[in-house]
Specification:
Blueprint: E1 8-25, H1 26-29, E2 46-61, E3 69-81, E4 88-97, H2 101-106, E5 114-115, E6 117-125, E7 130-139, E8 141-149, H3 163-171, E9 175-178, E10 184-191, E11 197-205, H4 208-212, E12 225-243
Parallel strand pairs: 4-5, 4-9
Antiparallel strand pairs: 1-2, 1-12, 2-3, 3-4, 6-7, 7-8, 8-11, 9-10, 10-12, 11-12
């Protein structure tokens, strides 16, 4: 990836990144996508919705050690095709951060993040003897996630040719989109290679994707894929560019 927008780059370290993903009918998701974005179907007529959370540390402008910010972030997203390059991309339905000032700063670029309560803490699950994460907080309603690394989950999903294809589909896109039709923005990222672990979901309370119509109540506790990335060096290139439907 050779980012086309290099006016500003923002560097950060992402810690304890988790991806909780659900394979759902594409017909359910298409009405929520800007018309300019083709869906990336992982299986005929199905696509993924992912809940992604993380701790963002030392967030700063490249070349400037100060000021820097630390905050938690949670987003709900799906997977699309970038109409500019034909490459895999991510579309963000909603994003929230545990900071008051960061949403004000990102709004300058048209990036709409909500202020949420989000506390992500790693711990050792003694029963499973595996690293685990727990999240408590609130986004419209109470938030709760509990995730544990799991050796038994390493075989991957049957809809993909191999486990690496699943990981690449969910964690690999380097292009992101936000906003509705006519107000869609596009931005690019880069990062070092990822160390991805498989995991199990032990518990969840998060009604936002259900209230939006992306997931059904009975699906929330039964994800098709749970992945963890312990640490991730990450760069975002700004400003984003507006994407318009072709006439």
């Amino acid at each position: 990836m050779n980012p086309s927008n290099r006016l500003i780059s923002v560097k950060m370290t992402l810690n304890h990144v988790f991806y909780i993903s659900y394979l759902v009918p594409a017909s359910r998701i298409r009405p929520f996508l800007p018309v300019v974005l083709p869906p990336a179907t992982a299986f005929p007529e199905h696509m993924f919705v992912s809940i992604v959370g993380m701790k963002c540390n030392n967030v700063r402008l490249s070349g400037f050690p100060w000021p820097s910010f630390d905050y938690g972030q949670l987003n709900v997203r799906t997977y699309v095709i970038d109409p500019q390059t034909g490459n895999p991309a991510v579309y963000f339905f909603q994003s929230g951060v545990s900071s008051c000032i960061v949403p004000l700063l990102t709004s300058i670029f048209g990036i709409t993040w909500e202020r949420i309560d989000f506390d992500l803490q790693p711990y050792l699950n003694e029963e499973a003897a595996q690293p685990s994460y727990k999240v408590i907080g609130g986004w419209q309603e109470d938030l709760y996630f509990e995730i544990v690394e799991s050796e038994s989950s390493r075989e991957g999903m049957e809809v993909f040719a191999d486990p690496e294809s699943e990981i690449t589909h969910i964690t690999g896109p380097l292009i992101g989109f936000m906003g509705s039709t006519g107000h869609t923005i596009r931005f690019e990222i880069s990062h070092l290679p990822l160390e991805v672990h498989r995991a199990r979901l032990l518990g969840i309370r998060f009604q936002l994707p259900v209230a939006m119509g992306l997931l059904k109540e009975g699906e929330l506790s039964k994800p098709d894929s749970v992945l963890l990335v312990p640490r991730w060096e990450f760069t975002v290139y700004l400003p984003p560019r507006r994407v318009y439907p072709r006439s």
